[in-house]
């Protein structure tokens, strides 16, 4: 059984969608506070539909609390973490996944904190994506709308991109995957490598 970890998630619908994916794949969900919503949030449960009550979910007060309670804090502990970040050199598809591993995704506005990435450089992985100018015909218009001096009607575009991610005007890519898409992509690669029902284990080993 795999573990999906959301570090300080901010958008309830993303977490709801991820919860639904966890239920249908037999994956545990771990949420690290602070959360940008209440676990009673209607948007969260609407996205998760009737699945949420069947979800194996645990909430932690902090990253340190998560590491301690999952037995990952001890020096020399077996590396079971996969930190998904755009700042990694290694691709997620080049990683080796084992049953029980933890797939960690950062919050929508800023990802996984630099200090965590720096402490675990060998655990950092990324999902490849086309740059904005190749994936969006109107990338220039989006970039202008995200400028600090843009007009007031573009304020919503500065807050979130077209995928529902928050935008940092000083460091953003408007064509990034949203959190639930990214979680599904990496989780299914991990499941494929470990012989999830309906997926060819031998095929996974040869790709």
Automatic annotation (TrEMBL):
Its main location: cytoplasm. It is an enzyme of class 2 (transferase). Its EC number is 2.1.1.207. Keywords: Cytoplasm, Methyltransferase, S-adenosyl-L-methionine, Transferase, tRNA processing. S-adenosyl-L-methionine binds at residues 84, 106, 127. GO terms for molecular function: methyltransferase activity. One of its GO terms (biological process) is methylation. It catalyses: 5-carboxymethylaminomethyluridine(34) in tRNA(Leu) + S-adenosyl-L-methionine = 5-carboxymethylaminomethyl-2'-O-methyluridine(34) in tRNA(Leu) + S-adenosyl-L-homocysteine + H(+); cytidine(34) in tRNA + S-adenosyl-L-methionine = 2'-O-methylcytidine(34) in tRNA + S-adenosyl-L-homocysteine + H(+). Residues 2-137 form the tRNA/rRNA methyltransferase SpoU type domain. It holds the Pfam family SpoU_methylase. It is found in: Cytoplasm. It comes from the Bacteria. Could methylate the ribose at the nucleotide 34 wobble position in tRNA. Belongs to the class IV-like SAM-binding methyltransferase superfamily. RNA methyltransferase TrmH family. TrmL subfamily. This is Putative tRNA (cytidine(34)-2'-O)-methyltransferase. It comes from Enorma phocaeensis.
């Amino acid at each position: 059984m795999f573990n999906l970890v959301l570090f300080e998630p901010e958008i309830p619908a993303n977490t709801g969608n991820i919860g639904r994916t966890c239920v249908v794949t037999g994956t545990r969900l771990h949420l690290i506070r602070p959360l940008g919503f209440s676990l009673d949030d209607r948007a969260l449960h609407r996205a998760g539909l009737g699945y949420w009550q069947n979800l194996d979910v645990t909430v932690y007060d902090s990253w340190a609390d998560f590491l301690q309670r999952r037995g990952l804090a001890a020096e020399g502990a077996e590396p079971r973490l996969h930190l998904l970040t755009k700042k990694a050199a290694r691709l997620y598809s080049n990683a080796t996944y084992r049953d029980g591993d933890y797939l960690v995704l950062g919050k929508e506005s800023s990802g996984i904190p630099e200090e965590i990435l720096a402490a675990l450089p060998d655990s950092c992985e990324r999902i490849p994506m086309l740059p904005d100018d190749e994936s969006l015909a109107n990338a220039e218009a989006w970039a202008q709308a995200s400028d600090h001096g843009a007009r007031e009607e573009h304020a919503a575009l500065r807050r979130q991109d077209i995928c529902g991610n928050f935008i940092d005007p000083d460091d953003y890519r408007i064509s990034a995957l949203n959190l639930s898409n990214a979680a599904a992509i990496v989780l299914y690669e991990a499941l494929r490598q470990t012989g999830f029902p309906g997926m060819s284990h031998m095929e996974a080993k040869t790709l």
